[in-house]
UniProtKB/TrEMBL annotation:
InterPro entries: Cation_efflux (IPR002524), Cation_efflux_CTD (IPR027470), Cation_efflux_CTD_sf (IPR036837), Cation_efflux_TM (IPR058533), Cation_efflux_TMD_sf (IPR027469), CDF/SLC30A (IPR050681). The chain crosses the membrane at residues 27-49, 55-72, 93-115, 127-147, 159-181, 187-207. One of its GO terms (molecular function) is zinc ion transmembrane transporter activity. Belongs to the cation diffusion facilitator (CDF) transporter (TC 2.A.4) family. SLC30A subfamily. The lineage of its organism: Bacteria, Bacillati, Actinomycetota, Actinomycetes, Micrococcales. This is Cation transporter. Pfam families: Cation_efflux, ZT_dimer. It is found in: Membrane. Keywords: Ion transport, Membrane, Transmembrane, Transmembrane helix, Transport. It comes from Intrasporangium chromatireducens Q5-1. GO terms for cellular component: plasma membrane. Coiled coil: none annotated. It comes from the Bacteria.
Length: 312
């Protein structure tokens, strides 16, 4: 039997998609953290639930962005134990999971606060609301531009991007609430907008959470079906069967696969295909057709009992 594997990254380097965009996270973190302090102070002094809700989401952003930065640093850290054979890249996925929990927590908090205001008539200062909402919109638009380039490549960056996107709509909501409160004199507009922000954040959190669970559950990468990979490998000359095929995502931008390729003896008068040639062809198929640069493949002759000896 022969074994082969293709590598597209090193376990101690910065090969993850999030690592390549770390500077975007750093700059966004600085902008959001600074604005969070401003928005929280103004929200408390103006008694605006919409502003406080947006500040709460900003707080979630600060923690999530900080966790994302820590995760990208951990992911590129050299393993000194020798036990983390895949490195620490999964730290980025856990950071995305933390972002999901924070977003859901903020949504629940705002809903509870909104219910508590039923029947009350708090005085809401619409002027500071409008000013801070406009400033927040500018900060969020800058952050969106910074993070958009990496959102399609990294689940970690995507989590931060979705939070900032939700914040942008939150800023728009704060501006709308300030205008409505000022023009109508009805402070309940502030509560309505706060609830709308909370619902939107919750929906985005659930969507991101599904992606996080798919990675942690070792599902096949998005857009790829294992049957397609099995069919492609079985068409390689010399391969008569493919089994024990597994494909999963280690972290964003790092898909992994393993498979056993069964070969048959060549017919009389026909040249046999050697294992090295099969491994080379199979590695190329996984890399070029399915974007999997780390594929561990085993070539075994028909009738081998190696797989039959496994207990699961």
């Amino acid at each position: 039997m022969s074994h082969g594997h293709g590598h597209g990254h090193g376990h101690g380097g910065g090969g993850s998609a999030a690592g390549a965009h770390r500077w975007r996270l750093q700059l966004t973190f600085g902008l959001v953290a600074t604005f969070f302090v401003v928005e929280l102070v103004v929200g408390l002094t103006s008694q605006s639930l919409a502003l406080i809700s947006d500040a709460g989401h900003m707080a979630a952003d600060v923690v999530a962005l900080g966790a994302a930065l820590v995760a990208t640093r951990i992911a590129t850290r050299t393993d000194t134990t020798g036990r983390r054979t895949f490195g620490s890249y999964r730290a980025e996925v856990f950071a995305s999971g933390l972002a999901v929990l924070l977003m859901l927590g903020v949504s629940v908090y705002i809903c509870i606060e909104a219910i508590g205001r039923i029947g009350g008539e708090p005085e809401v200062a619409s002027g500071p609301m409008l000013l801070v909402g406009a400033l927040g919109l500018v900060i969020n638009l800058i952050s969106i531009v910074l993070l958009r380039a990496g959102a399609d490549e990294s689940l970690n960056i995507k989590g931060a991007y979705l939070e900032v996107l939700a914040d942008t709509l939150g800023s728009v909501g704060v501006i709308a609430a300030a205008i409505l409160v000022r023009s109508t004199g009805q402070v309940w507009w502030d509560t309505v907008v706060a609830l709308a922000i909370a619902m939107f954040v919750a929906v985005r959190a659930v969507m991101l959470g599904r992606e996080v669970l798919a990675v942690l559950g070792q599902h096949a990468p998005a857009g790829m079906h294992p049957d397609e990979a099995e069919e492609a490998l079985s068409q390689i000359p010399g391969v008569v069967e493919v089994h024990d095929l597994h494909v999963w995502t280690l972290t964003s931008g790092m898909n992994v696969a393993t498979a056993h390729l069964v070969t048959a003896d060549a017919s009389p008068g026909e040249p046999s295909t050697d294992s090295a040639t099969i491994l080379s062809a199979a590695t190329a198929v996984m890399r070029e057709r399915f974007g999997i640069e780390h594929a561990t493949l085993q070539v075994e002759p028909a009738g081998s009992s190696a797989c039959a000896q496994t207990s699961w």
